[in-house]
Design brief:
The protein is α+β, with helices and mostly antiparallel strands and 304 residues long. The chain is 21% helix and 33% strand.
Length: 304
C-alpha cells in the first residue's frame, strides 16, 4: 500500500480497549460493522485484534501468557503488566496510542512541555504479505504513562512499515468507519485541572478549548472532550456499574467518523443492536456490552 497520508501531531491512533474474553469482544465489535483482522500477539504476553481504519485502529487487547508480562520494559514501565493490572480492575480503555511519523522528535516535544517518558519499546512481528512473501513489521513506541492519571496514559506509536499494517482488505468496514473524531474523558470537576494540565502538556495550551460542561483538546486527528458524570450521562446514557464505581478520570467513549451515517444505522438495525439515532450521529448506550466503552458513529468530525 503506497501513498499513505502523513499524520498530524500526535493524532488519536488507537485507544486500547482491554477485554477479558478476546473472542467474545471480537464478535461484539464485528456485530456493529467492523471488519476484524486476524488475531495476533505482542511479545509481552498480550493478545490483540484490530479493525484497521485511516491511520488509526480499533484495538482489542487481552492476555495470552502471564509469564511474558514483564518482557520488553521501558524504564520501570512493563506494557503487559500494566494491561494485567488495569484489566484486573475492569475492562475498558486505559492507554491511548498517538500516531507519529517521528516518534523521537514528538517525544522530545512533549518532554519539553513536562510529560514524563518512561522509555522506548521497539518491536516487530512476522507477517505474510498479500503476495505471499514473508515480511516483518517494525514499530517504535514511546511510553507516556501517567502516575497521577494512570487511566489517561498514552504512548506515541510510529509504524515504520505502515504498508504492512494498513492492508486494504482489512480496511473495509460495513459501517463505513474512517477514523476517530473524538475520545471522551470522564473527570469530575475537582479532577479536571489535572486533566487539563495533562492535555496542555501533550498538545500545548493553544489546543485547549472550553465547553459549557467541561473542556477539550484538539489533536493532529480528532479531539478529546472532558466532562463530569452528569455530562457523560446527558450525552451517552447511564454509566455501566464498573464505570459508575470508579473515582479516577478515565476514557469512556469513542466517536468514529463514518462515510455514510445511514449505512452504519442499517448495520446496527440488521444486527439488532440497541442504538439512538441523532442528527448526523448514532450512539450506542450499552457501554457494558462493549467493554465499558460508549461507541458512537458520526458523519462529521464535530466535537459534541
Amino acid at each position: 500500500m503506497t501513498g499513505l497520508p502523513g499524520t498530524g501531531f500526535l493524532g488519536i491512533d488507537h485507544p486500547l480497549i482491554l477485554v477479558r474474553n478476546l473472542d467474545d469482544a471480537i464478535a461484539r465489535f464485528a456485530s456493529i460493522g467492523f471488519t476484524m483482522a486476524p488475531q495476533s500477539r505482542h511479545p509481552w504476553g498480550t493478545s490483540t485484534c484490530i479493525a484497521i481504519m485511516e491511520r488509526s485502529l480499533i484495538e482489542l487487547v487481552s492476555i495470552y501468557d502471564e509469564e511474558k508480562l514483564d518482557l520488553l520494559p521501558a524504564g520501570d514501565f512493563r506494557f503487559g503488566r500494566f494491561v494485567q493490572q488495569h484489566l484486573a480492575e475492569r475492562e475498558g480503555i486505559s492507554l491511548t496510542a498517538l500516531n507519529s511519523d517521528d516518534a523521537e522528535g514528538d517525544a522530545t516535544a512533549v518532554i519539553l512541555r513536562g510529560v514524563a517518558c518512561q522509555g522506548t519499546i521497539a518491536f516487530g512481528r512476522d507477517v505474510i504479505r498479500h503476495d505471499g512473501v514473508p515480511d516483518r513489521t517494525s514499530t517504535t513506541l514511546k511510553i507516556l504513562a501517567s502516575d497521577d492519571l494512570p487511566r489517561l496514559s498514552h504512548f506515541i506509536c510510529q509504524q515504520h512499515r505502515p504498508d504492512l499494517i494498513y492492508v486494504p482488505k482489512w480496511s473495509q468496514h460495513a459501517n463505513g468507519a474512517q477514523h476517530y473524531s473524538q475520545v471522551t474523558i470522564l473527570a469530575e470537576e475537582a479532577d479536571q485541572p489535572r486533566v487539563r494540565s495533562r492535555l496542555a502538556q501533550l498538545y500545548g495550551s493553544s489546543a485547549i478549548f472550553d465547553l459549557d460542561d467541561g473542556f477539550g483538546a484538539r489533536t493532529g486527528r480528532g479531539s478529546y472532550v472532558v466532562t463530569d458524570r452528569r455530562g457523560i450521562e446527558a450525552r451517552y446514557g447511564t454509566l455501566p456499574p464498573d464505570l459508575a464505581a470508579g473515582t479516577e478520570p478515565c476514557y469512556v467513549a469513542i466517536h468514529i467518523k463514518v462515510d455514510d451515517i445511514a449505512r452504519a444505522k442499517a448495520v446496527l438495525s440488521a444486527n439488532g443492536i440497541n442504538h439512538r439515532a441523532l442528527d448526523g450521529e448514532i450512539r450506542l448506550p450499552d457501554a457494558g456490552t462493549f467493554a465499558n466503552v460508549f461507541v458512537n458513529f458520526t458523519a462529521s468530525g464535530a466535537v459534541v
